[in-house]
Amino acid sequence: MASVTEIAPDVFRITTFNPTTRLSYSHFVIRDDEPVLYHAGLRSCFAELSEAAASVVDVQKIRHIGFSHFESDECGALNDWLEAAPDAVAFTGPLCAATSLNDFAIRSPAVLGKDATLETGTKRFRLIPTPHLPHGWDSAMLFEESDRTLFVSDLFTDSGDPAPVIDSGLADRAHQFLLRAEQSLFAHSTNFNPSSRGQLEALAELGPKTLAVMHGSSFSGEGSQELLQLASAMEDVFKKQAVIDG
Ligand SMILES: [Fe+2]
Ligand SMILES: [Fe+2]
Q: Which residue ranges does the record assign to the ODP domain (predicted)?
């Protein structure tokens, strides 16, 4: 079964490992009056993920399902979850709704605009648009304000099946992964453009205490420092890739 770890108060990391991609895949269940699932995961993993989620929440009572950008590991199993949880509604930004989710989801999604908040009982969420960061023009990052948890999707990706939570070295690991990835199928996975550093600086200003990472360890500590360090790491990789691409 998938492993389950509480990484922040009532925030549970549910993780599988795929030996083909050599990546871990983490999904987050937030236990509250109205339970939230962030990352619906691959369709092929639904049975395993829902069994693990049931250890921390009544799956039928999940009310909100979100993700960063339209991609199979983010939302492939969305409709399975919507069938399992009859009162659940997907939430997304206006662009993802217009380009993908209004068509894909079996129930209409809730659209969370730039300054809108989602209150679930004791927790309050905002969806922060981050176009093309890490990739995809519909990308967004979810921020939980009461405990300052930032859900960063594919940022800080690392390979293998590392520890559920670390408190140092997150950006270093991501830097090494990005350098290795540029020689692999995952080259160009993380976009760096003139807006990227400013986007990461804006995320750092949120002062996150926990970074909830999809592929790799999550992080507990000074999240701002890791985000700023990641900006420099991405810039370095982008320059090296430009040389490789000629
Ligand atoms: Fe992605
Ligand atoms: Fe991903």
A: 27-158
